[in-house]
Write a structure and sequence with these properties.
The complex is a heterodimer of chains A (676) and B (614).
Chain A (H helix, E strand, L loop, with lengths): L1 H11 L4 H31 L3 H4 L3 H4 L11 E5 L4 E5 L12 H7 L12 E4 L3 E4 L4 E6 L3 H23 L7 H13 L7 H10 L10 E8 L15 E8 L2 E8 L2 H13 L2 E3 L4 E5 L2 E5 L5 E7 L7 H13 L4 E7 L13 H6 L9 H13 L3 E8 L19 E2 L17 E2 L4 H18 L4 E5 L5 H5 L7 H19 L7 E5 L14 E5 L6 H8 L3 E4 L2 H4 L22 H6 L2 H4 L4 H6 E8 L9 H5 L2 H10 L13 H16 L10 H5 L6
Parallel strand pairs in A: 5-6, 6-8, 12-13, 12-21, 13-14, 14-17, 17-18, 18-19, 19-20, 20-21
Antiparallel strand pairs in A: 1-2, 3-11, 4-10, 7-8, 7-11, 9-10, 15-16
Chain B lengths: L1 H23 L8 H4 L3 E3 L5 E3 L19 H5 L16 E3 L3 E14 L3 H19 L12 E9 L14 E7 L3 E8 L2 H13 L1 E3 L5 E4 L2 E5 L5 E7 L7 H13 L4 E5 L15 H6 L9 H12 L4 E8 L19 E2 L17 E2 L4 H17 L7 E3 L5 H5 L2 H9 L6 H26 L9 E4 L9 H4 L5 E5 L7 H7 L3 E4 L20 H6 L14 E8 L9 H5 L2 H11 L5 H17 L10 H5 L6
Parallel strand pairs in B: 4-5, 5-7, 11-12, 11-20, 12-13, 13-16, 17-18, 18-19, 19-20
Antiparallel strand pairs in B: 1-2, 3-10, 4-9, 6-7, 6-10, 8-9, 14-15
Helix pairs in contact in B: 1-4, 4-5, 6-8, 9-12
The chains are: A alpha/beta (676), B alpha/beta (614).
Chain lengths: 676, 614
């Protein structure tokens, strides 16, 4: 009403006639809006109830200002377990403890994978900002220096990303509610209020407990940067703290160890949403080295195409989990996305589309990126089987049939899954092309002591249509030996120390020399071949279908036939799989086990689900292979302590933009131990 | 007017979201590069094949039509072309195409009143935005034919419930200069489905613009009136953006009910304006909440896509977080067995919590929650009151309950507890009726509420416990269970969520098994007896429980499998998934185009090479 009167007054003061008209228009508009508002109010009023009668409880609570929800909980460490309790504002000087700070300081060290020999951290934590983190390099090797710098940059970039994440939608009341505990806090300069305000306005510089956090990386012994299975990956991390200066000293014998030290350091740091700063321990001491040398993940980019970004994202997560081999199953019978410099025809005929291809530049980009994360990229052209589309142009160029049975039907007679295609073992051009491809790969990835030749699921009936050799398996054997010979030529006449093939009928014979060949066992973990291969002296990489095949569990993708390998392997299945224990291997045979690898075949996965199909299950494998913790629990039971750590690790992945699958209801993450 | 402007902003929002989503992930459904240039043929077995793959002797009679791409071919190869779900009435599609520019489509709306006209205008806008997503290259086409779409609706009501007429008819015909699309439907919702079907008659052209089937005639109506999807936002929170995406995908699948299992023992993310404590004590965090306005907006968003949102407030079981504040407010224990351990003694799944049926304050609070829910929905909308997995030992171990029961002259037999439990539901239904009477006096009939099947709905007890006029039972038993049949025989209306086919969370925990889209598709529901006057089988729902799912894997877990259920519920086909295969793959690609991230179901090669991966 007051507004109306004022408007009238203005109106009476009246100016020109035209202005009057405009004012009249404005006035009527305002009246209209007011009426609408008033009317709306009325509607709401009629819908509400007689409050006093129905809501005795409301009278009490109305007065108190609403507090942000997450701030109404605080966490208490009770018996190595964080317990959620109501944060009582009246509880005077007790500071609210955020979940992550509790989780990082309660119980055993919260690092994934768990360090193997020694790990001590203090309960005393320090707050700092990413701007305080500085690098000090202590190594005589120039190239190592360069790469350590890159690895350190990754650490800082990711810490910055974490520090800048918005955890809760910032609302006005949030800051006001912080003020209460803050005013009672004795720690003047670094009070949460001050830091909260600083972080929102001035970027939180110098607001924590530290003036600087020095990361000192010492690598003296080896300047080695090429990947080989004998890389020393151990490291030692120790801190010293004085005069608001924290020094984290990582000592390693090689770049690889130092990088793992950085991955550990990253997990010793967390973002506290109460303090709005990064936190770490005032003192920590860790001695760590992996139990297995080969800790891999295989991705198939033929059944579905995956972008370079998706692959790089995957590799960065592998780095955090300290996995060290990315096995890139780059081609298969379905498609040939790799554009070879020597034979671009392969991709021209074999890629799904022009955009679904990898150029040499793409592969180099992935390889170089992976090196920063201590991950070696191993490219596999599967042969002789699993090679069809992309290999069909031979006759047109006068090179003869490079591959046989391409897309032949009925497929079940000639291959393991449609479409069929198996390289022609009697065409010299086929070998030449393979040799060129190997050459290109070796150039792109750099020197290596290990190379994957494929070699799985050969269907002899396919070849039997073309050749009347009585010994078709001999033909297969010859093929593998011939391609191995070509590999040697491609590698500058030096045979790689280890050549990997998939387990198959051939690896059960004496065809492949056990001095050089490594068998990647993908059959069942209880099969006899596991024992036989070890007895025959082969080195082994485990990829058991019944534990470490991540594509299983989604039913059959064909209209006919059963699902190949249901059910789904949960992260617990992956974690609890310890074939070396179950097989009771003696010391000698245990040494033949180089490690393990999880496999993601992509018949039923494309880029939209890549992250959640891989993570956090690959992380479970990472700890199995790095720390190989003892496990005397029943089938399917994982100790609460493991839940607690993998849950935090999963959150770290999500913070870094990896769309990892949920482990359980969030309630269970907020209340460790309650859901087991 | 206000509604109108809001709708517009939703549309922009939707477009932004969709564009962002589409930009971030490469479309795996891109046309095959090397084979794009060849022509495609639809062979006698309804396979789309590249011309050169057909040997001269193979096709006994040369097919007349050559298509520029596989997708072009798919538009009319097979009786139902690329329409998902398959129409139940007449369906004829021509093999000719009209290239057109989506910006040059003109709409004419004939509707009985302002609200229906407005609704259809919004439908037109959503339709165009969906068309634009189909463009492969540039959408604009200089030499475009004009496309005139006329939509006629006769019913003036916007009521959407189980009685709503969702049928429609669409006719496309093309003259020298113009293509006419004639849509006729009783309600706006029927007309909206016609627009969905129309979008299934369109695909991107390998040059510019879009291709439309030049003449078509489809009459269609759903078999079941309740075609739903359950979304659980309590076990893990789902941001609104992902719920909206889910609604978009449901709209594309002609599904019409989002069953929003918004709260559970784990968390209470929904704001109850009348009882703010619920959210304050129950949500995971500030960021993980839905405000009253959020929910209102979501209901509107769904409405424009022909979808009802039925909210579920589960009780007496599955209620813990959010209910803790009773003692401190002097209202006593509203939920009992809260977070008790060992949980196996107090509930089916941790954390525990079950409402206290002898606490009157609890009923008062529950009534206020219901009032909030009633305010969210349309006047005709009902509520789901849960009622599953009540764990009687919890009540039996709570002294205040057993004492009170004894005082009321009950023994502590199972029967007594069942009676207590049924009183809980009946009292709540009464409260629900009161609220509706006050809030929506125009709605005459009391609304039935939905309950899960449980011990209480056991055919042995149900008639004494739950009157059939007031309760619809949502069964969640295995396909083999006799429960559905028995409830039908007793005259109950049912919704079906077949546990061993439509539980989308299965296959990732415990002893459960994953159901692929074929299994979801082939899950046939019981049908009403032909002489039955009253509709008893209302339909069904696929269920997305979120224990092991959050936004990171939600879409892939639901889609495209829920699409299998969508066709089951709309068309109830006699044929198996095998015959729907290629239409289904096309449907999946359409979801991708619309910004959804469905799971992959088979190697891309097999999609491009039809009939080669049997």
């Amino acid at each position: 009403m007051l507004l109306l009167r004022r408007l009238r007054y203005l109106f009476k003061m009246s100016l020109a006639v035209s202005l009057r008209r405009a004012l009249l228009l404005l006035l009527s508009g305002a009246i209209f809006i007011l009426t609408v508002l008033y009317w709306n109010q009325g509607v709401i009023k009629t819908q509400s109830y007689n409050e006093a009668q129905l809501r005795p409880h409301l009278q009490k609570d109305r007065s108190s200002a609403p507090i942000p929800l997450e701030k109404s909980w605080t966490y208490k460490c009770d018996n190595d377990r964080c317990v959620r309790v109501n944060y009582n504002k009246n509880g005077a000087n007790v500071k609210r403890v955020s979940f992550i700070s509790c989780s990082m300081t309660c119980g055993d060290i919260n690092i994934w994978p768990h360090p193997t020999s020694k790990s001590l951290v203090s309960g005393h934590t320090l707050r700092f900002s990413v701007e305080d983190v500085q690098l000090r390099l202590d190594t005589p090797h120039r190239e190592v220096r360069k790469r350590l710098k890159l690895a350190f940059d990754v650490l800082v970039r990711q810490l910055r990303q974490i520090q800048q994440l918005e955890y809760a939608a910032p609302r006005a009341e949030e800051i006001s509610s912080v003020s209460e505990p803050a005013s009672k806090s004795t720690d003047g300069a670094a009070s949460p209020l001050a830091s909260g305000l600083f972080s929102s306005t001035f970027g939180s510089h110098r607001s924590g407990d530290l003036d600087s956090l020095h990361v000192k990386l010492s690598v003296h012994e080896s300047g080695e940067l090429d990947f080989n299975l004998d890389n020393d990956e151990s490291y030692e991390l120790a801190t010293s703290f004085e005069h608001r200066r924290l020094t984290v000293h990582i000592r390693a014998k090689s770049f690889f160890g130092a990088r793992h030290g950085l991955a550990t350091l990253q997990q010793l740091i967390w973002y506290d949403d109460e303090e709005r700063l990064l936190c770490t321990y005032a003192s920590s001491l860790i001695n760590d080295a992996p139990k297995f040398r080969y800790r891999g993940l295989m991705l198939d980019t033929s059944r579905h195409f995956f972008s370079v970004d998706a692959i790089k994202r995957t590799i960065s997560a592998m780095g955090l989990a300290k996995l060290n081999r990315f096995h890139w199953h780059i081609t298969d019978a379905q498609s040939f996305p790799y554009i070879s410099r020597h034979y671009p025809e392969l991709a021209e005929h074999g890629a799904y589309s022009d955009s679904e291809t990898y150029s040499e530049q793409d592969v180099r980009e992935v390889t170089e990126y992976a090196k920063i994360f201590g991950v070696q990229v191993l490219l596999e052209i599967d042969a002789p089987a699993h090679a069809g589309n992309g290999w069909d142009w031979g006759p047109k160029r006068g090179l003869g049939e490079l591959s046989l049975c391409i897309n032949q039907q009925p497929w079940s007679f000639y291959c393991g899954e449609p479409p069929c295609g198996q390289l022609n073992p009697k065409n010299n051009h086929t070998y030449l092309i393979l040799q060129r491809l190997y050459e290109e790969f070796l150039q792109l990835t750099g020197p290596t002591d290990i190379f994957h030749l494929g070699g799985d699921e050969v269907n002899l009936d396919c070849w039997a249509q073309y050749f009347n050799d009585t010994d078709l398996r001999g033909l297969w054997c010859d093929f593998m030996l011939q391609s191995n010979a070509r590999l040697k030529v491609a590698n500058g006449n030096v045979a790689p120390k280890h050549v990997v093939v998939w387990s198959s009928a051939l690896t059960n014979t004496k065809c492949l020399p056990n001095s050089q060949f490594v068998v990647q066992v993908w059959g069942g973990s209880t099969w006899q071949e596991n024992y036989d291969l070890l007895d025959n002296g082969y080195n082994i990489i485990f990829s058991h279908v019944d534990a470490w095949y991540l594509d299983c569990g989604f039913g059959s993708w064909r209209a006919t036939g059963d699902a190949a390998c249901s059910p789904y392997r949960t992260w617990q299945n992956v974690y609890k799989h310890r074939p070396w224990e179950r097989m009771r291997l003696d010391k000698k045979r245990r040494k033949q086990v180089l490690g393990g690898e999880a496999c993601l075949w992509t018949e039923q996965v494309d880029e939209g689900q890549l992250d959640n199909r891989l993570w956090p299950r690959v992380a479970a494998l990472a700890e199995r292979l790095w720390s190989d913790p003892n496990d005397d629990h029943d089938f399917d039971v994982v100790p609460p302590e493991v839940f607690r750590r993998i849950s935090v690790f999963r959150n770290r992945l999500v913070e870094l933009g990896i769309k990892a699958e949920a482990l359980f209801p969030k309630y269970c993450a907020q209340n460790p131990g309650e859901c087991i | 007017m206000i509604l109108n402007s809001c709708n517009r902003c939703y549309l922009t929002l939707l477009l932004c979201v969709a564009a962002a989503a589409a930009g971030s992930v490469p479309d795996d459904s891109g046309e095959s590069g090397p084979t794009t240039r060849s022509k495609w043929l639809c062979d006698s077995t309804d396979l789309c094949l590249p011309e050169e793959s057909l040997l001269p002797g193979e096709g006994h009679e040369q097919p007349r039509h050559r298509y520029e791409s596989q997708r072009d071919c798919r538009l009319s190869c097979g009786k139902y072309g690329a329409i998902w779900p398959m129409p139940t009435g007449e369906c004829s599609l021509s093999h000719d195409r009209v290239p057109f520019d989506p910006w040059k489509v003109r709409f004419n709306v004939v509707a009985p009143n302002e609200v229906t006209t407005q609704f259809l205008r919004e439908t037109n806008r959503l339709f165009v935005s969906n068309l634009l997503k189909e463009c492969i290259r540039n959408c604009t086409l200089a030499a475009s034919k004009e496309v005139l779409v006329k939509a006629t609706v006769t019913d003036s009501s916007l009521v959407l419930d189980w009685k709503t007429d969702e049928s429609y008819m669409i006719v496309v015909r093309t003259t020298d200069k113009v293509s006419f699309v004639d849509i006729k439907a009783a309600t706006v919702y029927g007309a909206r489905f016609a627009f969905e079907t129309l979008s299934n008659l369109v695909t991107g052209s390998v040059t510019n613009g879009l291709l439309l089937v030049s003449s078509a005639r489809v009459t269609d109506q759903p078999v079941y009136p309740h075609r739903g999807l359950l979304l659980d936002t309590s076990r893990n929170f789902l941001p609104l953006r992902y719920i909206r995406n889910t609604l978009d995908a449901m709209a594309a699948s002609k599904m019409n009910v989002l069953h929003w299992h918004v709260v559970d023992t784990h968390s209470f993310p929904l704001e109850i304006t009348r009882v703010p404590e619920m959210q304050r004590y129950g949500a995971y965090s500030n960021a993980q909440t839905y405000s009253h306005t959020d929910a209102l907006n979501l209901v509107k968003y769904a409405r424009l896509r022909g979808i009802r949102i039925i909210m579920e407030i589960d009780g007496p079981s599955h209620a813990g977080s959010g209910w803790q504040w009773g003692p401190s407010a002097g209202l006593g224990n509203m939920s009992v067995c809260l977070n008790q351990s060992p949980w196996r003694n107090y509930c089916v799944q941790p954390p525990c919590g079950q409402l206290n049926p002898i606490n009157d304050h609890m009923y008062a609070v529950l009534k206020e929650i219901f009032a909030d829910i009633a305010e969210l929905g349309a006047p005709e909308e009902t509520i789901h009151m849960g009622g599953d997995e009540v764990f009687i030992p919890c009540w039996n171990r709570t002294e205040e309950i057993t004492t009170q029961m004894k005082a009321r002259g009950y023994d502590l037999s199972q029967e007594s507890f069942l009676r207590l439990w049924s009183q809980f539901h009946q009292r709540n239904v009464k409260a629900w009726d009161d609220i509706n009477l006050q809030m929506y006096p125009s709605v005459r009939e009391p609304k039935p509420v939905i309950l899960w099947s449980s011990k209480l709905t056991d055919p042995e007890y149900i008639e004494q416990m739950l009157p059939k006029e007031r309760f619809i039972i949502q069964t969640w038993v295995a396909a083999q269970s006799p429960l559905n049949r028995e409830l039908l025989r007793k005259g109950y209306r049912i919704l079906i969520s077949t546990k061993d086919a439509w539980y989308l969370d299965h296959g990732f925990w415990g002893n459960t098994q994953y159901y692929n889209w074929r299994k979801v598709y082939d899950n046939a529901l019981p049908i009403d007896a032909p002489n039955n006057q009253k509709r008893q089988v209302l339909g069904g729902e696929v269920c997305m429980w979120s224990e092991y799912v959050d936004q990171n894997s939600l879409e892939a877990r639901i889609w495209p499998r829920a699409g299998g259920a969508a066709e089951r519920l709309w068309s109830n086909p006699k044929s198996s998934a095998y015959l729907a295969e290629r239409r289904f793959y096309r449907y999946r690609e359409r979801l991708i185009a619309r910004g959804i991230h469905p799971d992959a179901v088979l190697p891309h090669w097999c999609v491009l090479h039809e009939g080669q991966c049997l």
